[in-house]
Amino acid sequence: MQVAIVTGASSGIGQSAAVQLAKRGTGVILTYGRNQAGAYDTVAHIEKEGGTAVALPLDVGRTETFPAFRASVVAALRDTWQRDTFDHLVNNAGFSQMSMFEDTSEELFDRFLRVLLKGPYFLTQSLLPLQADGGAIVNVTSNSALESGLEPGYSGYATMKGGLAVLTRYLAKELSPRGIRVNAIAPGATRTRLADDAFEKYPEVIPALAAKTALGRVGEPDDIGMMIATLLGEEGRWITAQHIEVAGGYNL
């Protein structure tokens, strides 16, 4: 059985990716930050469908915790799947906050950097010795890093997501001798808990976003989760170094 690690899988896109991977017969190690209950819900959902999943705590903004996390991954692989390697990694965990350029503090900039770019960079580096040859990595960026999704207030957030897209190409190049494929997906506006539950708190923004989207609605977590599972699966075997927008034609 293949095994995937999905960061930030207690809700939204990460939760969907974990469930979709499990539906395809992949074991899942999923991580959570503050939302332990959501992570356990994800595990329960996967187990109810006959899959296997383990939830582990991880703060992607604290690189000093990565050695301990790696040790817990080793234990989970051994105890649950009798393996010493995993196959796929989904760097999804993150946070979003709107802040106009002139209002962005160094503190917020540094938090964006730690969680959205430095975290995935060094987490991938830490886990790489455990990743099996022929596996795959998907980095979740954002269409705010593309021309189509350019909106005021996301300069700090999108700068880090753009950096993650560049890292994706370098990883694809450097890991190709091991047959490891690396791609990035750029979701548009998606109905998740990101940005402090913005869609729940401000439902009035949804019609405006839907009106700017060619396919006429905002994204749902499964729109993105299915794409992640596809890229990691056999269907994606000839795709690497790509940055794919998954946004229903935003600003088309």
TrEMBL record:
Query: Is-annotated flag, keyword Phosphoprotein?
Result: no
GO MF annotation list: oxidoreductase activity
Which InterPro entries does the entry link to? NAD(P)-bd_dom_sf (IPR036291), SDR_fam (IPR002347)
Does the UniProt entry include the keyword Oxidoreductase? yes
Keywords attached to this Swiss-Prot or TrEMBL record, sorted alphabetically, are: Oxidoreductase
Q: Pfam families recorded for this chain?
A: adh_short_C2 (PF13561)
The UniProt entry's sequence similarity note says: Belongs to the short-chain dehydrogenases/reductases (SDR) family.
Protein name per UniProt: NAD(P)-dependent dehydrogenase, short-chain alcohol dehydrogenase family
Source taxonomy lineage?
Answer: Bacteria, Bacillati, Actinomycetota, Actinomycetes, Micromonosporales
